[in-house]
Amino acid sequence: MRILVIEDDQSTAAYLVKGLTESGYVVDHASDGHEGLQLAMAEPYQVLIVDRMLPGLDGMSLIGKLRESGIGTPVLILSALGDVDDRVEGLRGGGDDYLAKPYAFSELLARLEALLRRRLPEQQQTVLKVADLELDRLKRRVSRQGQTISLQPREFRLLEYLMRHAGQVVTRTMLLENVWDYHFDPQTNVIDVHISRLRGKIDKEFSPPLLQTARGAGYCLREPD
User: Fold this and answer.
1) Strand order in the sheet with 211-214
2) Distance between CA atoms of 65 and 16, rounded to whole angstroms?
3) Which of 78, 128, 162, 171 stands the most exposed, by the fewest C-beta atoms within 10 Å?
């Protein structure tokens, strides 16, 4: 899932981007209101995290312009202004949630998950299944034959992408662009390493194997014939 952080304080922004990336999200960052507005209107984000006090265009004005343009992307407002009147103004001004600084990162994650649960389209699956392998996108849990499988954030994203394209051959280019957010070939074996680790976790102790290699083409996650 893709998140846009609009925050002018560089240390705060770096902290958010690092934490969210480690939690498995794809994260973009804008350092002022005008840049954030342009990105939010041009790219498909699942959630926006918007600081209220931004240079160029303040957070509330940014949200107002998005709503006027018909963009309903959920917005979590971050602000040092935490009084009741400030929170009410933020929510009535188009924000979907409001978190006062300072805050615990665990609470921020929980609020993001709540926004995603409320706004996720009904037709978009939250639980993916291939044979006896199950992935819960919101709870970020993976299990096979009822046994919980522990995955690192990048492994989770890799498996999610493979499961969303179950039965299809997924090329290395598709994985680089959609799992690693690379639009070039880094000339490394990063995909092979992660595929090997993932296969060891979802197939080694279970039968039959689900993750197949399509030689010269890519990989395919599918139920056996």
Assistant:
1) 170-171, 218-221, 211-214
2) 24
3) 171
Q: Where are the domains of the chain?
A: 2-119, 127-221
Model confidence at 31, pLDDT cuts 50, 70, 90, reads very high
Q: Which helix (H) or strand (E) holds 201?
A: helix 190-202
> CA of 191: how far to CAs of 30, 156, 185, 196, 217, in Å?
29, 13, 11, 8, 13
pTM of the entire predicted model: 0.59
Strands (E), the chain: 2-6, 26-30, 47-51, 75-79, 97-100, 127-130, 133-136, 141-144, 147-149, 170-171, 211-214, 218-221
Long-range contacts of 173-178 (CB under 8 A, 24+ apart): 174/218, 175/218, 175/219
Just give the CATH number of 2-119.
3.40.50.2300
CA distances from 218 to 168, 173, 221 (A): 10, 9, 11
* pLDDT given for residue 25 in this prediction: 85
Q: What's 127-221's CATH class?
A: mainly alpha
